[in-house]
Amino acid sequence: MADTPTRALVVDDETDVQFLFTQKFRREVRKGLLEFVFATSGEEALEKLRTGEAADVVVVLSDINMPGMSGLDLLAEITREFPDVEVYMVTAYDDNQLESTALQGGARGYLTKPIDFGTLKGEVFGIEAA
To answer: Which residue ranges does the record assign to the Response regulatory domain (predicted)?
Structure first.
């Protein structure tokens, strides 16, 4: 068991995302391996990072297409203000140009929806699937 859980910030304007992550990672959360903070917009995510509500977050999973601040705009702000935080972009669009833009902008990875949670556990969080 980890001494402290890996904290991740999940940013998505779809309301079911929090429930989905809570369900898919319930064992890891219960074991103290992971802890999630949720935001429904890029602006809210930045506020949580800046005010400390999302302190110690090491990974951000952000949707790209959101009202207001886009995920790519959020990526630019996070890489500038919080360079040690890894950012993964999540989108429903499997678009090579968008993926290239995200990776060139500093994203650690590009994930398409529907999310493969087994891959997410292994590649992003380093947790072997049960």
So the answer is: 7-128
Please state the separation of Cα 124 from the chain's center in Å.
9
* Domain-embedded: residue 111: yes
Which pTM does this prediction carry? 0.94
Segments forming the whole domain that contains residue 89: 6-123
Asked if residues 71 and 62 have their Cβ atoms less than 8 Å apart, the reply is yes
CB atoms < 10 A from the CB of 55, how many?
10
Model confidence over 17-29: pLDDT tens digits?
999 999 999 999 9
The domain tally of the chain equals 1
Mean pLDDT in residue range 28-50: 96
